[in-house]
Specification:
The protein has helices spanning 6-14, 18-38, 43-61, 73-92, 99-107, 112-136, 139-150, 155-162, 166-187. It is mostly helical. Helix 3 (43-61) crosses helix 4 (73-92), helix 7 packs antiparallel against helix 8 and helix 7 packs across helix 9. 77% of the residues lie in helices and 0% in strands.
Amino acid sequence: MAFTTKGSLLAAVKMGDEISWQQFYDMYKPLILLKGGDLRLNQTEKEELVQLVMLSFFNTSQTFCYDKSKGRFRDYLKRIIHNKACDLMRKRHDDTVSADELENVLAAIPQESDDRWEKEYQETVLTQAFEELKLRCDVTTLQSYDLFVRQNLPAKEVAAMLDIKANAVYQHKSRVEEMLRQIVKELDV
């Protein structure tokens, strides 16, 4: 399965590609569950929230046209999640919850919720970026980067392990970080 950027993933979803739908689902389900937890939904409601959000997006996907100038996709998705969660909260109270009560519940949600959403989103993007990086880099460059940056081994030790020059370790680090920046930029819609 080829990796796609989120922009091309959205385009493939719009075309009805089943593999892209599965990628979309796998990518956004954890974020929807996280937001559902922040909105104090129980586990059953969180699972229902996933289905409602996915169904809502599916129903609009044929006509959906992402326009960066109007904002980020993650903010659009967060708004759908918020609206569907409100619907679930209203349903939880047999349609007897007032708008004021609902607003009080939502106002009580701490700012950390948005911070956690942003952090989780960025982690998702970084995970995807590393998957794409595996397709763009040779094995030695990836191993060098992993040992030097992620495992914090000295450059000379990494060079000896991989039978390369120490200078190459620094070059690999620079090359990988530049590729990661580019990939994250492509993904961060």
